[in-house]
Amino acid sequence: MRLRNKPWAKDMINENLDLIAVQPENMQGKWQDRFAKNQPLFIEVGSGKGKFITELAQENPQNNYIAMDVQEGAIALVLKKQVELRLPNLQLLLANGADLSELFAENEVSGVYLNFSDPWPKTRHEKRRLTYKTFLKQYQYILKDDGYLQFKTDNQGLFEYSLVSLNNYGMKFDDISLDLHNDETLNATNIETEYEEKFSKKGFRINYLKAHFEN
Fold first, then answer.
1. Where does the chain bind S-adenosyl-L-methionine (predicted)?
2. The pTM is what?
Protein backbone atom coordinates (compact mmCIF):
# COMPACT_ATOMS: atom_id res chain seq x y z
CA MET A 1 0.00 0.00 0.00
CA ARG A 2 1.49 3.32 -1.09
CA LEU A 3 1.38 6.05 1.52
CA ARG A 4 0.89 9.72 0.84
CA ASN A 5 4.00 11.84 0.51
CA LYS A 6 5.29 13.21 3.82
CA PRO A 7 6.80 16.69 3.24
CA TRP A 8 8.77 16.39 6.49
CA ALA A 9 10.17 12.93 5.76
CA LYS A 10 13.39 13.86 3.98
CA ASP A 11 14.46 16.35 6.64
CA MET A 12 13.77 13.89 9.46
CA ILE A 13 15.77 11.20 7.69
CA ASN A 14 18.72 13.52 7.07
CA GLU A 15 18.68 14.63 10.72
CA ASN A 16 18.77 11.05 12.06
CA LEU A 17 21.29 9.18 9.95
CA ASP A 18 22.48 7.43 13.11
CA LEU A 19 19.13 5.63 13.15
CA ILE A 20 18.55 5.07 9.45
CA ALA A 21 20.68 4.00 6.49
CA VAL A 22 19.75 5.32 3.05
CA GLN A 23 20.66 3.03 0.15
CA PRO A 24 23.90 2.01 1.91
CA GLU A 25 26.88 0.71 -0.02
CA ASN A 26 29.46 -1.77 1.23
CA MET A 27 27.47 -2.60 4.37
CA GLN A 28 27.41 -6.36 3.77
CA GLY A 29 28.62 -8.09 6.89
CA LYS A 30 28.94 -4.79 8.79
CA TRP A 31 25.41 -4.15 10.03
CA GLN A 32 26.30 -5.04 13.61
CA ASP A 33 28.45 -1.89 13.71
CA ARG A 34 25.26 0.19 13.76
CA PHE A 35 23.96 -1.45 16.93
CA ALA A 36 24.90 -1.13 20.59
CA LYS A 37 25.55 -4.89 20.82
CA ASN A 38 26.44 -7.69 18.44
CA GLN A 39 23.29 -9.85 18.52
CA PRO A 40 21.24 -12.02 16.13
CA LEU A 41 19.94 -9.86 13.29
CA PHE A 42 16.37 -9.93 11.94
CA ILE A 43 14.84 -7.82 9.17
CA GLU A 44 11.30 -6.86 8.21
CA VAL A 45 10.92 -6.25 4.48
CA GLY A 46 8.15 -3.68 4.11
CA SER A 47 7.66 -2.23 7.58
CA GLY A 48 4.58 -0.09 7.00
CA LYS A 49 4.10 2.32 9.89
CA GLY A 50 6.38 0.34 12.21
CA LYS A 51 4.06 -1.06 14.89
CA PHE A 52 5.22 -4.64 14.40
CA ILE A 53 8.97 -4.08 14.29
CA THR A 54 9.12 -1.55 17.15
CA GLU A 55 7.10 -3.81 19.47
CA LEU A 56 9.18 -6.82 18.43
CA ALA A 57 12.39 -4.95 19.24
CA GLN A 58 11.02 -3.82 22.59
CA GLU A 59 10.01 -7.34 23.56
CA ASN A 60 13.26 -8.92 22.41
CA PRO A 61 16.24 -6.82 23.53
CA GLN A 62 18.48 -9.85 22.98
CA ASN A 63 18.08 -9.43 19.19
CA ASN A 64 18.87 -6.70 16.67
CA TYR A 65 16.27 -5.63 14.11
CA ILE A 66 16.17 -3.70 10.85
CA ALA A 67 12.96 -2.10 9.59
CA MET A 68 13.20 -1.87 5.81
CA ASP A 69 10.96 -0.08 3.32
CA VAL A 70 11.33 1.31 -0.18
CA GLN A 71 8.88 4.17 0.46
CA GLU A 72 10.36 7.27 2.02
CA GLY A 73 7.00 8.22 3.55
CA ALA A 74 6.59 4.81 5.17
CA ILE A 75 10.07 4.50 6.64
CA ALA A 76 9.78 8.09 7.93
CA LEU A 77 6.77 7.03 10.02
CA VAL A 78 8.84 4.21 11.54
CA LEU A 79 11.67 6.67 12.10
CA LYS A 80 9.29 9.02 13.91
CA LYS A 81 8.57 6.22 16.39
CA GLN A 82 12.24 5.35 16.77
CA VAL A 83 13.26 8.97 17.38
CA GLU A 84 10.98 8.86 20.43
CA LEU A 85 11.84 5.31 21.55
CA ARG A 86 15.58 5.28 20.79
CA LEU A 87 15.67 1.49 20.89
CA PRO A 88 19.34 0.41 20.83
CA ASN A 89 18.46 -2.78 18.95
CA LEU A 90 16.53 -1.19 16.06
CA GLN A 91 17.89 0.35 12.88
CA LEU A 92 16.02 1.51 9.79
CA LEU A 93 16.83 1.06 6.14
CA LEU A 94 15.44 2.95 3.13
CA ALA A 95 16.05 0.53 0.28
CA ASN A 96 14.46 -1.87 -2.18
CA GLY A 97 13.74 -5.40 -0.98
CA ALA A 98 14.79 -6.70 -4.39
CA ASP A 99 18.40 -5.85 -3.53
CA LEU A 100 18.82 -7.86 -0.32
CA SER A 101 21.82 -9.83 -1.52
CA GLU A 102 23.57 -6.53 -2.28
CA LEU A 103 22.74 -5.10 1.14
CA PHE A 104 23.46 -8.09 3.40
CA ALA A 105 26.24 -10.65 3.44
CA GLU A 106 25.76 -14.36 3.09
CA ASN A 107 24.53 -15.92 6.37
CA GLU A 108 24.27 -12.50 8.06
CA VAL A 109 20.58 -12.60 9.00
CA SER A 110 18.73 -14.88 11.44
CA GLY A 111 15.18 -14.19 10.28
CA VAL A 112 13.13 -12.36 7.63
CA TYR A 113 9.61 -11.04 8.29
CA LEU A 114 7.13 -10.35 5.50
CA ASN A 115 3.94 -8.74 6.78
CA PHE A 116 0.99 -8.01 4.48
CA SER A 117 3.11 -7.56 1.39
CA ASP A 118 1.59 -6.21 -1.81
CA PRO A 119 -0.18 -9.23 -3.40
CA TRP A 120 0.47 -8.15 -7.00
CA PRO A 121 -2.56 -10.22 -8.11
CA LYS A 122 -2.07 -9.94 -11.88
CA THR A 123 -0.16 -12.84 -13.43
CA ARG A 124 2.17 -10.50 -15.30
CA HIS A 125 3.31 -9.08 -11.94
CA GLU A 126 4.18 -12.45 -10.39
CA LYS A 127 7.90 -11.65 -10.25
CA ARG A 128 7.18 -8.70 -7.93
CA ARG A 129 5.65 -10.87 -5.21
CA LEU A 130 7.98 -11.13 -2.22
CA THR A 131 7.53 -14.89 -2.15
CA TYR A 132 8.51 -15.36 -5.81
CA LYS A 133 11.50 -17.64 -6.34
CA THR A 134 13.99 -14.84 -7.05
CA PHE A 135 13.19 -13.29 -3.66
CA LEU A 136 13.41 -16.69 -1.98
CA LYS A 137 16.88 -17.08 -3.48
CA GLN A 138 17.94 -13.82 -1.83
CA TYR A 139 16.47 -14.81 1.54
CA GLN A 140 18.33 -18.11 1.32
CA TYR A 141 21.58 -16.26 0.62
CA ILE A 142 21.37 -13.82 3.55
CA LEU A 143 19.87 -16.22 6.11
CA LYS A 144 21.95 -18.30 8.47
CA ASP A 145 21.63 -22.09 8.27
CA ASP A 146 19.11 -22.03 11.13
CA GLY A 147 17.38 -18.87 9.91
CA TYR A 148 13.72 -18.64 9.02
CA LEU A 149 11.13 -16.78 6.97
CA GLN A 150 7.87 -15.64 8.61
CA PHE A 151 4.98 -14.46 6.45
CA LYS A 152 1.54 -13.02 7.24
CA THR A 153 -1.21 -11.92 4.87
CA ASP A 154 -4.97 -11.52 4.71
CA ASN A 155 -4.87 -12.20 0.97
CA GLN A 156 -5.89 -15.82 0.42
CA GLY A 157 -4.65 -15.89 -3.16
CA LEU A 158 -1.20 -14.66 -2.22
CA PHE A 159 -1.01 -17.09 0.67
CA GLU A 160 -1.90 -20.07 -1.51
CA TYR A 161 0.61 -18.90 -4.11
CA SER A 162 3.27 -18.55 -1.42
CA LEU A 163 2.69 -22.04 -0.05
CA VAL A 164 3.24 -23.46 -3.53
CA SER A 165 6.22 -21.20 -4.26
CA LEU A 166 8.03 -22.06 -1.01
CA ASN A 167 7.26 -25.74 -1.41
CA ASN A 168 8.52 -25.79 -5.01
CA TYR A 169 11.70 -24.07 -3.85
CA GLY A 170 12.26 -26.91 -1.38
CA MET A 171 11.55 -24.98 1.81
CA LYS A 172 10.24 -26.77 4.88
CA PHE A 173 7.27 -25.43 6.85
CA ASP A 174 7.54 -25.06 10.61
CA ASP A 175 4.06 -23.57 11.15
CA ILE A 176 1.03 -22.88 8.96
CA SER A 177 -2.26 -21.28 9.99
CA LEU A 178 -5.23 -20.23 7.87
CA ASP A 179 -6.70 -18.33 10.81
CA LEU A 180 -3.88 -17.05 12.98
CA HIS A 181 -6.01 -15.10 15.45
CA ASN A 182 -8.01 -18.20 16.33
CA ASP A 183 -4.92 -20.33 16.81
CA GLU A 184 -4.27 -20.13 20.56
CA THR A 185 -0.68 -21.37 20.36
CA LEU A 186 0.56 -19.22 17.49
CA ASN A 187 -1.47 -16.13 18.35
CA ALA A 188 -0.14 -16.10 21.91
CA THR A 189 3.13 -14.60 20.66
CA ASN A 190 1.73 -12.76 17.64
CA ILE A 191 2.48 -9.06 17.28
CA GLU A 192 -0.03 -7.27 15.06
CA THR A 193 0.74 -4.69 12.40
CA GLU A 194 -1.49 -1.63 12.04
CA TYR A 195 -3.04 -3.18 8.95
CA GLU A 196 -3.59 -6.51 10.68
CA GLU A 197 -5.26 -4.91 13.67
CA LYS A 198 -7.64 -2.93 11.46
CA PHE A 199 -8.67 -5.72 9.12
CA SER A 200 -8.87 -8.55 11.64
CA LYS A 201 -11.45 -6.47 13.53
CA LYS A 202 -13.48 -6.43 10.32
CA GLY A 203 -13.47 -10.22 10.25
CA PHE A 204 -10.64 -10.83 7.79
CA ARG A 205 -8.79 -14.08 8.44
CA ILE A 206 -5.04 -13.76 8.86
CA ASN A 207 -2.90 -16.40 7.15
CA TYR A 208 0.48 -17.23 8.66
CA LEU A 209 3.48 -19.38 7.89
CA LYS A 210 6.97 -19.90 9.18
CA ALA A 211 9.46 -21.82 7.07
CA HIS A 212 13.16 -22.51 6.65
CA PHE A 213 15.54 -23.57 3.90
CA GLU A 214 16.97 -27.06 3.94
CA ASN A 215 20.76 -27.16 4.04
1. 44, 69, 96, 118
2. 0.95
pLDDT tens, position by position, 117-168: 999 999 999 999 999 999 999 999 999 999 999 999 999 999 999 999 999 9
From 18, 99, 118, 183, active-site residue: 118
96 annotated as ligand-binding? yes
In this structure, which amino acid lies at residue 129?
R
Count the Cβ atoms, other than its own, within 10 Å of residue 16.
Answer: 15
118 carries a ligand binding annotation: yes
**Residue 199, phi then psi, degrees to nearest 5:** -85, -25
Architecture of domain 20-213 in this structure: 3-Layer(aba) Sandwich (3.40)
- Is 65 buried (19+), middle (13-18) or exposed (0-12) by CB count in 10 A? buried
Expressed in percent and rounded to 5, the helix, strand and coil fractions of the chain are 40, 25, 40
Active-site annotation holds for 118? yes
The whole-chain average pLDDT of the chain stands at: 94
The residues, ordered by sequence, that sit 6+ positions from 152 with a Cβ below 8 Å of its Cβ are 114, 115, 116, 180, 193, 196, 206, 207, 208
Among 41, 46, 5, 4, smallest CA distance to 196 is for 46
Ramachandran class of 116: left when φ > 0, alpha when ψ lies in -120 to 50, beta otherwise: left
Question: Residue 63: phi, psi to the nearest 5?
Answer: -120, 160
Q: Is 193 annotated as a binding residue?
A: yes
CA 177: distance to chain centroid? Answer: 19
* Residue 84 annotated in ligand binding: no
